[in-house]
Write a structure and sequence with these properties.
alpha+beta
């Protein structure tokens, strides 16, 4: 097990980037993206959570979700909506698209990527050649799916909207996206996989950059990773999840008393240390169950439970189903899921 909890979580929540749009805008323009549940049904059936990001390739625009101030985007900027909020990108703040009852996201989701779209005041033409030379703005829209259950502490630790200025991005981030889109538009072998990996990379890079600029007094799971004591305690639990940890032992390992670690950990993470460990064990257990290669009793032992019955009780409390039933349901979802 890695000593890097962020990498552990990113691996365990199964990031999948599957759909890309290359969107041309003209005149006064606005495009609205629905919230995660609707996006999942349309683009990635079976996904727990779908987040969107937008790279402004040409021109300028605005982006915002409800309850948050709009941000001005310049060419090279990326805006991301990690919590899966409904949001809009537009040529001016406060614009709203005409109501759209079409199912174009569903009918085009299996088309070769990127999917070209032309927009103007909510009127769109999926499959329109683009980007049109006369377009005032061009945006690459990417979508990333991930698991939320049993335990994904990362999504709640990220803001509702995350603006990454082009000057703050590593030059290879935008270059990677540009190259992935160019390869896909040229229909090169393996280009769909390149686009998917590029989309996942953009999300990982955004999370890392957000972590790097957090203030020292920030709360939340990402901030906790930077806390000298709490971050070390989390790393130890990730390194040895099956160990019979106690708060006393963790406190000694990180240089705090039992009470001080409990208070500091709970304040930073929002869970007590042993609650966090239980949730992390369930996340690891779910991953092993999904693979379907070992029996439930072996999974229980692998993640630190002395008996299959104890693991099954804990799993059912968190997931609402016994482990075996949950594994069967995951197989059914996998059989029915789209891209």
């Amino acid at each position: 097990m890695s000593h890097d909890p962020l990498s552990d979580v990113l691996r365990s929540v199964r990031l999948r980037g599957a759909v890309f749009y290359y969107v041309s805008f003209g005149g006064d323009w606005v495009a609205e993206t629905p919230a995660s549940p609707e996006l999942a049904r349309a683009l990635m059936p079976g996904a727990d959570h779908v987040l969107a990001y937008h790279l402004l390739v040409k021109g300028r625009g605005w982006a915002a979700c409800d309850g948050h101030e709009p941000v001005l985007l310049a060419a090279g900027d990326i805006v991301m909506f990690p919590r899966g909020d409904a949001h809009a990108i537009s040529s001016a703040p406060g614009l709203h698209a005409n109501e759209d009852h079409s199912d174009w996201r569903v009918t085009t989701r299996d088309d070769p990527k990127p999917i070209d779209v032309a927009y103007h005041r909510g009127v769109l033409r999926p499959g329109a050649p683009g980007p049109a030379e006369e377009a005032s703005s061009v945006v690459v829209c990417g979508f990333v799916a991930c698991d939320m259950k049993p335990f994904n502490p990362l999504i709640a630790a990220l803001p509702h909207q995350l603006h990454l200025r082009g000057d703050d991005l590593g030059p290879w981030t935008v270059q990677l996206l540009d190259q992935a889109v160019a390869e896909s538009r040229a229909h090169r072998a393996g280009s769909a996989a390149v686009l998917e990996r590029a989309s996942e990379f953009v999300f990982v890079d955004a999370a890392r950059r957000y972590l790097d600029r957090l203030p020292p007094d920030a709360a939340g799971w990402l901030a906790a990773l930077r806390d000298r004591h709490v971050g070390r305690a989390i790393a130890l639990m990730h390194e040895r999840p099956a160990h019979d940890w106690s708060v006393d032992e963790l406190g000694r390992a990180v240089g705090l008393s039992r009470s001080a670690l409990h208070e500091r950990f709970t304040l930073r993470v929002g869970l007590a240390p042993m609650q966090y460990l239980a949730h992390w064990r369930m996340q690891l257990g779910a991953g092993l169950l999904r693979l379907g290669r070992i029996k439930v009793a072996a999974v229980a032992q692998e993640v630190g439970y002395e008996s299959e019955a104890a693991f099954a009780r804990a799993f059912k409390r968190l997931m609402g189903q016994p482990p075996a039933a949950w594994r069967r349901a995951q197989r059914d979802v996998g059989d029915d899921a789209g891209p």
